[in-house]
Amino acid sequence: MIKRYFVRTRSLQEGMRIDQSIKDRMDRVLIAKGTILDSYLIDSLHKLEIGGVYISEGEEDVVQENALDQVPVSAIAKNNISKYREADPAKVKLTESVKKRVSEGIQYLYNNSESANFTSTTNSITNNLMKAINDNAAIAVDINALKTSDEYTFKHSVDVATMSMVIAKKQGLKQEDIYNIGIAGLLHDMGKSKIPLEILNKPAKLNDEEFKIMKSHSVLGYEILKEKNEFTPAISLAVLQHHEKMNGRGYPMGVTSEKITPYAKILSVVDVYDALVTERPYKKSLSQRTAVEMIMSMTEELDITAMKTFLSSVILYPVDSTVQLSNGEMARVVKNHANAVLRPTVVGLTSGTVYDLTDDISCANIVIQ
User: Fold this and answer.
1) Same structural domain for residues 60 and 75?
2) Do 270 and 339 have their domain in common?
3) Running DSSP on this structure, what letter comes out for residue 153?
4) Do 203 and 220 fall into the same domain?
5) pLDDT for the residue numbered 1
6) Three-state DSSP class for 200?
């Protein structure tokens, strides 16, 4: 028999089983019903300012609910959901122990750029990320699951490294290149360790002089790595060029596409995306959808190949999540398409209609709201 009761978030303990779904503003499931809570998930509930949740105890198997299970699902919808459902590709998964090691490692690097252990620590973190990608043949990223630290620079560095490695893998690059781009992603903002804290942590828009100083971080990071002979020139150059743009309007050198290293072309796409979806003291985060739309509009600034590979790696609407369509119907996501990240195949929960938002011309005027 299942026993269900309410527990204040401050009283939650690791090992408790949550008996409700926790969803984001787009009604996507962040924590599914039946999930066993750990310290990371409990901390997430605190940060979401959720006062309490329902917990269940008992020996019976707990079936995880689908998103918005309170919405009635017709018999024909259930049949079509089962018929057309295709699981999402494997995603990168970081265990709690790996997250802890990565978090401690990245903070050590940014606080100890002169340490004799700098290179070995960098390699250790990259090995952890490489293993997480290879262990489950990951070709997609759920950025909500990558959180390793509350500090922006540390979290951002791990996000950029992980997503860049997935893109490199999907592009068919050699294992050595995937590894190297992981290092470049981890260290791409290393120069910020030399930026005055009053500028780095300013809770408002930087003035022109402050922004000039902030922009120097790519050169400062390059100089830090250049002095360490253990890193290849390609890694150092990627750190130097991660803010360069294909049209020559980036910095620090303002070079155009043909002079930008392949590593930097990948880093640039991921760096922009992760910055857009991350909240900072001076700006609100954008939704993943809005950030993707902005990325898609930057065809003059970002490398097209890197952009396309990135878009095929990000899953905005995971299979089994429930979405609101512009025609007013709630629908269940049953299949994602690598070439159309914003337009999955969904099934209307009431009508049972299969909406192929990618290829069915009759659905051209329907969008996910």
Assistant:
1) no
2) no
3) H
4) yes
5) 59
6) helix
- Report angle CA 213, 214, 220 to the nearest 5 degrees: 85
Query: Which whole-number Å values give the CA distances from 251 to 16, 241, 244, 248, in the listed order?
Result: 49, 7, 5, 8
The residues, ordered by sequence, that sit 6+ positions from 205 with a Cβ below 8 Å of its Cβ are 282
Q: pTM of the full predicted structure?
A: 0.75
Amino acid at 275: A
Question: Within 10 A of 234 (CB to CB), how many other CB atoms are there?
Answer: 16
Residue in 187, 156, 170, 180 with CA at minimum distance from that of residue 306: 170
Sheet holding 3-8, edge to edge: 3-8, 52-57, 17-18
Q: Are residues 250 and 360 in the same domain?
A: no
Instruction: Confirm if 303 and 246 have CB atoms less than 8 A apart.
Output: yes
For 12-17, what is the mean pLDDT? 88
Count of H helices and E strands in the chain?
13, 9
Q: Give 140's strand partners.
A: 91
Q: Domain check: are 158 and 252 in the same one?
A: yes
As for how many domains the chain has, the answer is 3
Q: Are residues 112 and 200 in the same domain?
A: yes
Asked if residue 369 and residue 267 are part of one domain, the reply reads no
> Could you list the residue range(s) of the whole structural domain that residue 12 is in?
3-65
**What share of the chain has pLDDT > 90, as a percent?**
51
Alpha carbon of residue 82 to chain centroid: 28
Nearest Cα to 291, choosing from 278, 304, 308? Answer: 278
| Tens digit of each residue's pLDDT (9 = 90 or more) over 99-134 | 778 878 888 998 899 999 999 999 999 998 898 888
d(CA 190, CA 42): 30
The CATH number given to whatever domain includes residue 20 is: 3.90.105.10
Average pLDDT on 153-172 reads: 88
Rounded to whole angstroms, the Cα distance separating 32 from 89 reads 19
Do residues 167 and 293 share a domain? yes
Print burial letters for 51-68: b (CB count within 10 Å at least 16), e (below 16): eebebbeeeeebeebbbb
Q: Which of 271, 290, 311 is the last residue of a domain?
A: 311
Q: What is the DSSP letter of 347?
A: E
